[in-house]
Specification:
InterPro entries: MdtP/NodT-like (IPR010131), OMP_efflux (IPR003423). The chain is α+β, with helices and mostly antiparallel strands. The chain has eight helices and four strands. It has a domain of 282 residues: Outer membrane efflux proteins (OEP) (Up-down Bundle), CATH 1.20.1600.
């Protein structure tokens, strides 16, 4: 590569760095979104106005309101029925006209037997309780998504900072390599290697910025924000997992499973109560137009359950109870496994963060500093600098991944402990 072409490539790299850094600076000047603000925008903080507009909360709460309304409906008794009959009219002979008409006015009332009303109310109350627990679980799931995606966005921002540092470092290395090549202290191959490393760093920066934009957009989607995605700081939030999750067996996931079993049991009682027919008692008065006489009527109507005794619905509700009990057993087993796994992931990530931040990264930073000083003085070749830089970058990437794992495991433990 000629000196003229090399200088052109170097100017292009410097121009890109000069462009990328102001863009990052502009984003840093925008208001940074904290985790507490993200939870508030999602409608999870107390008194948040977004609670009334976040569809992830509106839907489950509306289902709860509907279930509560059905409880009130289940408490209502059957309405009475009014019947009016007119006989012996518009016939022939003595029954022509209205002279021989008979008018019957009666009121009937269906009597619910077999504890139908009580079973219906209990089934509706069980469904309302299930809907309420599902709404609480939906809020806990939303809280987990906010924390999980916020941590992912912070990790993406940290990777953007790492990529920017790598670009700046490679620009400097390319400049030094060019100077050393010009004075004859390095072969031209070293300059080519530095330019290749710079091009790779620029590509990684673009990928990191795209990943950061995607992570921030996913976070904003949790509160249906269609504007510019928020800017999340690269510093990871301090998410402290609850200490009682290991011994707690009252998580919302288990509560939902138990509420489903109770609702299925109540549904069996309701279906069994429908086996007993309900009589209809009626009373009324009949008027004979021909003689101007009146008479009182009393009647009882009872369905005969010869073929339909609601046996199919009873068998179906019993099968649904067995299915609900099976899901409850699975939920209990999965809950314990999920808690154990999340706790192990959190503790392992916490240990990695401590080791990488306190020992590995400072040592790698010091090694890179010494190698870069030696490279400027011509004591080390470029390959040594690149090797030390790659080792330091790998440790920084590992630290970011460990911090991300720790934050997401803490978010999972909070979700599992929600009650």
């Amino acid at each position: 590569m000629s000196a003229k072409r090399w200088r052109g490539a170097l100017i292009s790299g410097l121009s890109f760095a000069a462009y990328a850094m102001p863009v990052a600076a502009q984003e840093r000047e925008r208001e940074l979104l904290s985790l507490e603000e993200a939870l508030s925008r999602s409608g999870l903080s107390e008194g948040a106005a977004e609670t009334q507009s976040n569809p992830r909360i509106i839907g489950p709460r509306a289902d709860t309101e509907a279930a509560q309304a059905l409880v009130g409906q289940a408490r209502l008794r059957p309405n009475p029925e009014v019947s009016l009959e007119v006989e012996n009219i518009a016939g022939s002979g003595a029954f022509s006209g209205l002279s021989a008409a008979e008018y019957t006015l009666s009121v009937g009332q269906r009597l619910e037997l077999g504890g139908k009303r009580n079973a219906r109310v209990q089934a509706a109350e069980a469904e309302a309780q299930l809907a309420g627990v599902r709404a609480d679980l939906a809020e806990a799931e939303l809280g987990f998504l906010v924390r999980d995606r916020y941590v992912a966005a912070a990790a993406a921002a940290s990777r953007v900072e790492l990529a920017l540092d790598i670009v700046e470092r490679n620009v400097e290395l390319a400049r030094i390599a060019g100077v050393l090549v010009e004075v004859g202290r390095e072969p031209p191959l070293r300059a080519l290697r530095a330019q290749a490393a710079l091009a790779e760093a620029r590509a990684e920066l673009q990928a990191a910025e795209a990943a950061s934009l995607a992570a921030r957009t996913a976070l904003a989607a949790l509160w249906s924000d269609e504007g510019a995605p928020p800017v999340v700081p690269s510093a990871f939030p301090n998410i402290v997992p609850p200490g009682s999750v290991l011994v707690s067996a009252t998580g919302l996931q288990l509560q939902v499973a138990r509420a489903e079993s109770r609702a299925a049991e109540a549904e069996i009682d309701r279906e069994r109560s429908l086996r007993i027919p309900d009589p209809v008692v009626s009373a009324g008065v009949r008027r004979f137009e021909e003689t101007n006489d009146n008479a009182f009527l009393v009647g009882v109507s009872i369905p005969l359950p010869f073929a339909n005794r609601n046996q199919g619905n009873i068998v179906a509700s019993e099968a649904r109870l067995r299915a609900a009990n099976a899901r409850e057993a699975i939920a209990l087993a999965d809950f314990g496994q999920a808690v154990t796994r999340a706790r192990a992931q959190y503790l392992a990530a916490e240990a990695r963060v401590e080791t990488l931040s306190a020992t590995s990264l400072p040592q790698a930073e010091e090694a890179l500093r010494l190698v870069r000083i030696g490279y400027r003085n011509g004591r080390f070749p470029l390959i040594e600098v690149l090797s030390a830089a790659e080792a330091r970058d790998a440790i920084r990437e590992a630290l970011i991944a460990a911090q991300e794992d720790q934050g997401q495991a803490a978010a999972e433990l909070i979700r599992l402990a929600a009650q």
